Structure formats: structure tokens, C-alpha cells
Amino acid sequence: MTRTDRLKTLAMVAAFGAAALTASAQETKNDSVKIAQKVVETTDSIDATTKMLDNVTVSADAPMQVKDMLVVRPSAADVKASSTAISLFQKLPLPGLEANPITRALSVDGGSPYILINGVPSTLNDLNALQPKEIDKIEYSRITPIRYASNGNVGFLSITLKQRTDGGDVYLWGRSAVNTVFVNADLRASYHQQASQFTVSYSPSWRNYLHAYDSKVSSYIGHDFRVDLTSTDRNPFNYHYHTMAFKYDYAPNIKTLFTATFRANPTYYGNRAIGHTFDSVTGEYDIRIHTKDTDFSPSLDLFFRHDFNDNNSLEAQIVGTIHRDHYRRENEYFYPDGLEQIYATNAESRRNSLITEVSYIHAFHDGTQLSGGFQNTLSDSHNKYLYTGYRAKLTENNNYIYIRAARNFGPLYLSLGTGLKMYWMNNAAYKHHYIQNLSTLQANWRISKKWNLSGAFTFVPSIPSLSSLTDYPQQVSPYLISNGAADLKGSRSVYFQIMPSYQYGKVMVAARFAYNNVTHPVIDDIRYIGNHLFLSQSINARHSRNMWGDLSFRLSGVAGFGANINLGLTHYETAATDWTDRLTSFNGSFTLWWNHGPVTLSYWRKIPGKYMSGHYVGKDENGDALQIEYTPDKHWTIGASWMYMFDTKGTRYPSWNYSSVNPTVSDRYIKDNGNMIVLSVTYNTNFGAIFRTARRNLNNSDNESSLLKL
């Protein structure tokens, strides 16, 4: 049996029945309450500073900096004014975190945070399925701990749920627009009996938009050729996503925990564009674009954790994922003389992977903590291009070894971590070896009860994707060819950050000043190759530098009123051998809310900023929402929202390309979203109470995609 066959067999075994062991808990919190206490405690033992709300215990503690984490316990007022987890996060004092109630997404400083729920790595769907009253505390950092730093996330969220004993819980939430197909839902049921707990969840999402429009003015400029293009099209699209999960937890004693989790997320996306183009060389012609993409990625893991004593824990895991993606795209051009041209990207992508991890955590009695671990990813990725039969293949053996030490020196907390990332990549024609260091340094100084100062340094490497490395030219339009580059280098990012904060009573103010420098960033570039053709290809630029200045302000609990405001200024710079592009952008968001009895009124607005990647500049999605909710009892909440108020174009996505070879100005808007009225309903009930499983780390699936989708 070949190595590839063995890998496929291992991946299938792990994805549909393999044994596995996994990981738990955050190393930053190992000296907190232990598993034994978590299993035997009940709601009767919660801190006396908490208050009761409809038989739900909710903490009223003020935010506090603990080591390298900001610890927030949602207040009774914030929980009462929130019907969903996203609406709760809109109100919490978490500087740098943006909670979007329309897309139901969380971001930290523009990136996706690493999320743990009771120590389990989780998705936004998992978070959205939570009830606000379930959340006991949130531990938050704008810096991803070194254990998870190799995953490409920005920021870190650890959510601890309230503890319960035997019983069950059902949570149902749904919303739909009355003037367009806009549907979301979350359904979750849990049951715990003695040593076992079962959880089933399902989160569907459906869109069918008929009024999406694109317009573009662009040029292709070569030394002996130039063409100017002006195009408009109507681009209706639809998709439906389904995220399903089944989880089983078994804790035979207070030191041992076993968990099995199966996830599946079938998705479908399709669109058809009908457009018209004026071409300065060939005249006018029509364009038809048809795209269809189906994706399925089932994964399964089994894990085991054992605490030897209060100071030592060992964790291990294996996760198997089978990913299948069928992508079809045809660009059809119809000319006045009857000529038709078709440029197609019809491909199938397959990826089988095994992710393993072993981690050990030791806490010394003098406040020092030492932890270390090993992570490995084995994968085979295949892209088959159906028109030609060409196959791109990449075999990966990625290894990550890390160690972390942390200690308190009075009010000063220091954490130092370093790791070695080793990649062995073979894409049939070329072999690539990347061996790079990953390091983090964090410091926190609790100056007083009101003032706090945090700082961080990170050094993070990254590697190119399969699509960027694959040397397979594809013509996508009459003038443009897309291809990869087999000789791409890995990138290295050096990041500095300093964060002062001030808190007094119901007011919190925080700032961030940050700088990031990336050497050899992988960006998209276009160049002229002759014969009236241009090549779009990934290249290594010289550097990419960003600077940030952010300010956050939060006020709550004033006669039912509250406000959360985030403002930011960002400067971008990207340089290659013969060009440099710069951009400065302002962005912000704010949430205002008022609660009185069973009624909550809230307003959220985003001030979209621009962002730059190479020559490309885009603008964040706009958005605002006015919402009123009514909670007649502890089971039901009924709501109505007005989204994209007074905006007839709905969501808008302007973009620019500053390339001297392909200058472009584009605009896209989805009119279906304009002045959208959305109705929502929430129902929850429980019987008995659900126990909280021990903390652990679990990579639920491998979400890598190796296919370039144009």
C-alpha cells in the first residue's frame, strides 16, 4: 500500500469512526477552577454578587484583566436586553470586537477570532445557538495564544456556560424577511444524565436574491496594446447552507473526559450573470456567466483527557475530515457577428486530512505555568480540471511544536511562547520545504483598579495555498489568463501592539496602537505577456505594512440605556520591486440600546472602512439595523428589524484596482437588502439542568480549501 493510500485510509477511518483523543482547555486558564469543582458545583454556589432574572442567575461583576485575558461577566441588564448571543456581544465591553447583527458574525480587528465554548473550539454557528442567559463569563484577548496561533485567527474568545445538573434544554430561533428570501435558524437540544451528555444542533441559512447588480470600468494596458472595457450586469444568486452537529460527552470521573463529535456542513451556491460590455477594440457584446458550487465536509473526532492532579494535565486528539467540492463556472461571450466564446473552470476538489495534537500543561506552586505541545496535519489535496483532465496534487506534512512559559510578578504578568513550524509540501512537479519560527510575547500591567496596560509581540509565518502554487494556466476572459507560481516563498509577519484601558463605574475606555510588517506577502498581480493577453498570478511582494489606531467606548446600565462605540484609523502600504501603493482609511461602528420591562429597542450602525491587498482596494460591507423586541415570558421573544434603512441599493461593495496594467473601478450592490423588514422569534425551555463539561481543545474539522474560485 502506498503512502497516499495509507493516508486516505487513515482519513476515512478518522472521519467516520477513528479513535481520537483531543485537547482541552486553554493554557492561559489552567490555574482556574478545576474539573472536579465544575462537575460537582451547582447554581447555589454562584457568587453572592449575582442577581436573579426570571430564575436565571446572571453575574453583575465588572470587567477585569486577569493575566493576559479580559474577563467579562454579562450583567443582568445586558442579558435582559438581549435575545440572542450576537445581540449580547454587541453590548459587552470587549474592545476591538465587532458583532454584526445582520450577518450574525464576530470579528476582532477585522479578522476571525478563535472561539472556545466550555473549552471546545467552536464555530459562529455554535455561538449563535447559545442563549444569553446560559453565558456565565467571557475571557477575551485581541492576541491569539500561541497554542492556536498557527491557525490564522485574529483574537481569542473563551465562553464559559453556567453549570447545571441532570436535565435537558431546547433552544429554537428563526428569522425571515417579509420582502425577500432571507432565512436563518438555529435549533439545538441537549440532555445530560449522570456521566453522559448528548447535544444535537442544526443551523440552516438560505438566500435567493434576484436584484444584484455589478458595474465595472477597467483597462488592460501593455507596451503595444490597450483595451478599455465598460460592463454592467444583473447577477442574481442563491445559496443554502446547512450546519449539523452531534456531540457526545462522557465523564466517568472528575479527572477523565471522553468526547465524540460529528459535524457535517453541506452547502450549495449558484448564480447567473446577464451582462453587456463595451470593448474599445472589438465593440459591444453580451456576457452570460453561470456558476454552481456544491461542498460537503464531514468530520469526526474522538478525544481523551486526563488530569493527573491539580497541576498536571495531558491532552491528545485525532481529527479526520473528508472534503469534497464540485465547482462549475462558464463565462460565455456573444459577439454581434454571431461568434461565441466560452471560458470554463469546471473542477472537482478533494482533500483528505488527519489532524493530531498532544499537549501537556504543568502549573508550579509559585504562579509559574509551563505548557507545550505538538500538532501535525497530514493531507492529500487533488484538483481535477474536467475540460482537460489535468490534475493538481499536493501532499502536506505540516508540523508545529511549541512551548509556553508564563508567570506573575506582582501586578505584572508575562507570557513567552515559541514554536517551530515545519512544512513538507509536494505538488508532484515541485517539492517545497518551509521551516520557520512562530513566537509570541505578551505582557499585562494592572496599574490600578481603573488603569491597565497590555502589550504584545508576535512573529507568525505562513505558506502559499495549493491554487497559488499550481502551474496550470486557465483563460477566464478574452484578455486574461490566471495561473499559479510554483516558486512562491513563505511569508513572515512581525506584529507589535500596545493597549491602554480605563474603567470607572459603568464607563470603559480602551485604545490600541499597532504595527504589522509582512515580508514576502503573497498577493495577486497582473502583467502583459504579449499577443493581447495578460496574466493574473500570485507573486511575492517586498513587504506589506499596516498601522492601526483604535478607540473603544462603552457605557451601560444608565436608566436602561447603553452604548458601545468603536472607532479606528488604519494605514496600509504594499511595495513590490517597481511599485508602492498606500491607503489610509477610517472605520467604526456603534450600538445603542434601551430596555424597559419586556421591551428592548436597539440600533446598530457600521461605518465601513477600506482595506488593501496588493493593488486591490475594497470597502467593507455597509449596514445598519433598528430592532424592537418583546419578551412576554421566559420562553418567548418576538422581534422586528428594519435593516439597511433608507438605502435603496441595500448592501454595497465598491472596489478599486490601482494596478498600472489593469486599473479598475467596480461597484456591486444587492438591492434585495434595501429597507428590509425582518421578523424573528425565539423559544427556549429546559427541564432539570445541564452540566457543564470539562474544558478542552477540539479542532472540529479541517476547513482548508485548495481550489481557486474565480
Quick structural overview:
This protein is mainly beta and 710 residues long. The chain is built from six helices and 45 strands.
Structural write-up:
- Strand 14 and strand 15 form a beta hairpin.
- The protein is globular and about 75 Å long.
- The chain is mostly beta strands.
- The longest helix has 14 residues.
Strand content: over 45%
Distance separating the two termini: 37 Å
**What best-fitting shape do the alpha-carbon axes yield?**
globular
The radius of gyration computed from the alpha-carbon positions, rounded to a whole number of angstroms, is 26 Å
Helix content: under 10%
Total number of strands? 45
Average pLDDT taken over every residue: 85
Q: Structural class given helices, strands, pairing? A: mainly beta
Can you summarize the main beta sheet? 31 strands, antiparallel
Low-pLDDT windows of residues? 1-60, 689-703
| Total DSSP helices | 6
Task: From the structure above, extract its key features.
31-stranded antiparallel sheet; 6 helices; single chain; globular; six-stranded mixed sheet
Q: What secondary-structure arrangement, pairings included, does this model have?
A:
Elements: H1 3-16, H2 35-40, E1 51-53, E2 56-58, E3 64-66, E4 69-72, H3 76-80, H4 85-89, E5 97-100, E6 105-108, E7 114-117, E8 120-122, H5 124-128, E9 135-141, E10 156-161, E11 167-177, E12 181-193, E13 196-209, E14 212-221, E15 226-234, E16 237-253, E17 256-264, E18 267-279, E19 283-296, E20 299-309, E21 312-334, E22 340-363, E23 368-385, E24 390-409, E25 412-426, E26 431-445, E27 451-462, H6 466-469, E28 474-475, E29 480-483, E30 491-504, E31 507-519, E32 522-530, E33 533-540, E34 543-558, E35 561-575, E36 580-596, E37 599-607, E38 610-613, E39 616-619, E40 623-630, E41 636-643, E42 651-652, E43 655-657, E44 664-670, E45 676-688
Parallel strand pairs: 7-10, 29-33
Antiparallel strand pairs: 1-2, 3-4, 4-9, 5-6, 7-8, 9-10, 11-12, 11-45, 12-13, 13-16, 14-15, 14-44, 15-18, 16-17, 16-18, 17-20, 18-19, 19-21, 20-21, 21-22, 22-23, 23-24, 24-25, 25-26, 26-27, 27-30, 28-29, 30-31, 31-34, 32-33, 34-35, 35-36, 36-37, 37-40, 38-39, 39-43, 40-41, 41-45, 42-44, 43-44
